[in-house]
Amino acid sequence: MNGYLAFVKKEFAENIKNYRFLIMLAVFLVFGMLSAFLAKFTPEILSALGAEMKMASEPIALDAWKQFYKNISGVGFSAVIILYGSCLSGEYSKGTLILMVTKGLSRKAVIFAKYTVAAVLMTISYWGSYVFTYGYTAFLWPDAKLSNVALAALALWIVGLLYLSILMVGCVLFKQTFTSILFTGGIVALVSLLGIMEPLTKFSPFNLTTQNIDLISGIVAPSDFVMPVLTSVIMSILGLLIAIKLFNSKAL
After folding, report:
1. What is the SS3 assignment for 48?
2. 20-48 and 77-84 helices cross at what angle (nearest 10)?
3. Which residues contact 95 (CB under 8 A, 6 or more apart)?
């Protein structure tokens, strides 16, 4: 436990020093600030630019959350994967893992610490973005009444944790950052494709990324998210266990 906590402290300090956390936080907060404003003022912006496009209807609060989920599930989580795709490759190249393991740090602690720090910093960034979107949406549409907004956001956050778990497996398997990122993208795409198959549809974690707006608008019920959430949590745990198993037998 002492080794784990010491490595967690090292990881937090390193993520601040190399600006990884600040970059991720900036990306998420920018999307949090822009989501509501883009939804509200896109018609005026197009009009000012002389565009002849006409909006089918006036912007509503739900449009702000559409922007939020599109931006975070796409660019936001992609940024997380890119930023943390080198979480182990840097240690491999510097040879620091050999030194720490020979001094008694367990390999399991390395994986848990890497995941813990990435998950905590992503959580801060994600919910910071959520707070900005929520606040600006409430300011621009003060009379809007939406349900299950926090629950929809919680569901997407769980998917972010799943992505990190898959990334850990990729970082253990491959020493090159690009290959780890490519592996993660491949597994995510595979799980997404499997979720299209009818028997698996109701279990697919990607329901949590595609049905957020349906949950807020009342098209789907919170109970429809139970199985996808359980699937995501189980897959996240399995991903970490697989990463630890592989790392235990990997030559440093």
Report:
1. helix
2. 150
3. none
Is-contact 118 7, C-beta < 8 A?
no
Question: Look-up: residue for tokens 């972010």?
Answer: 160
At residue 36, what is the residue type? Answer: A
Q: Which residues are within 8 A (CB) of 245 and not within 5 positions of it... i.e. 6 or more apart?
A: none
Q: What is the mean pLDDT of residues 138-159?
A: 92
Q: Is 128's pLDDT higher than 60?
A: yes
Which residue in 167, 154, 164, 173 sits closest to 249, CA to CA? 173
Count Cα neighbours of 149 within 13 Å in the Cβ-side half-sphere. 19
Band (pLDDT 50/70/90 cuts) for residue 48 is: low
State the Cα–Cα distance between residues 191 and 66, nearest whole angstrom: 23
CA–centroid distance for 29 within its chain: 14
3-class secondary structure per residue, 68-137: HHHHHHHHHHHHHHHHHCCCCHHHHHHCHHHHHHHCCCCHHHHHHHHHHHHHHHHHHHHHHHHHHHHHHH
pLDDT at 45 over 80: no
If one compares 37 and 243, the residue with the highest pLDDT of the two is 243
Of 85, 151, 164, the closest CA to residue 125 belongs to 164
| Residue in the block written with tokens 């009444």 | 145
Which of these, 20, 37, 116, 30, lies nearest to 72 by C-alpha position? 30
Query: What does the block give as tokens for 62?
Result: 């739900």
Rounded to whole angstroms, how far apart are CA atoms 111 and 91?
A: 12
Query: What is residue 59's predicted lDDT score, i.e. its pLDDT?
Result: 79
Query: Residues with Cβ < 8 Å from 48, sequence gap 6 or more?
Result: none
- Mean of pLDDT over the chain: 88
| Upper half-sphere CA count for residue 97 (Cβ side, 13 Å) | 22
Q: Which two tokens stand for residue 185?
A: 């993208």
